[in-house]
Write a structure and sequence with these properties.
Largest sheet: 8 strands, parallel, barrel
Structural class: alpha/beta
Number of strands: 8
Strand content: 15-25%
CATH architecture: Alpha-Beta Barrel
Number of domains: 1
Family: Belongs to the OMP decarboxylase family. Type 1 subfamily.
Protein name: Orotidine 5'-phosphate decarboxylase
Keywords: Decarboxylase, Lyase, Pyrimidine biosynthesis
Order of helices and strands: EHEHHEHEHEHHEHEHEHH
Subunit structure: Homodimer.
GO molecular function: orotidine-5'-phosphate decarboxylase activity
Number of helices: 11
Length: about 230
Amino acid sequence: MTGQLIVGLDVSSRARAEEIVSLLGDSVDFYKIGYQCFYGADGYALGRDLLKAGKKVFFDLKLLDIDNTVEKGVAAIAETGATMLTVHAYPKTMQAAAKAAKGSDLCVLGVTVLTSMDDADVKDAGYARDAAGLVALRAQQARDAGIGGVVTSPHEAEMVRTILGHKMFIVTPGIRPAGTALGDQKRVMAPGEALALGATHLVVGRPIITAPDPKAAALGILNEMNSGTRLA
């Protein structure tokens, strides 16, 4: 289960990111570097150093631009040896990303609908679908584009698995172990339950990195992943 847990280094200091990695030790071998860390903590260099240390790195950059720009950006990330990279799940974006990642070990993930968004938010964004309907559409487009998987709420994981089949990854943020605060997340689930519904990897940030004992928190989540504990 260790490799299925991705810890989000959502911090703005390289020193704090390295402290978290040190505290977690061998309990975690996969880290997500998103906007805050990438721009505020020299996350690109940090990611390369983590890769050199034998860790896996997920650059959560949610790329979206013209095809040529996306293709060159994905190619640059692929050269680092990173394990995963996110792009927005628009068909042309995913197609360009798939082309750039071909022949490398980089798994491109299409971000379907953010876990901070519910049906009302999707409607406000101008879509004539509910969140689940939009996720289904994006999952179909990701499959057709030939990328490695998608990022989606655990609430859509079971549906998405039926669309993607069994070869593509389903990475789920919005994971909250029993007894933790939801924060700004709206579509959340406990670790074991998300895996049971088809998720392959779970992204957990604040419940680990803000815990008094990050390693104990990570080990607790790994235990929930094994036991299938549900949110109360």
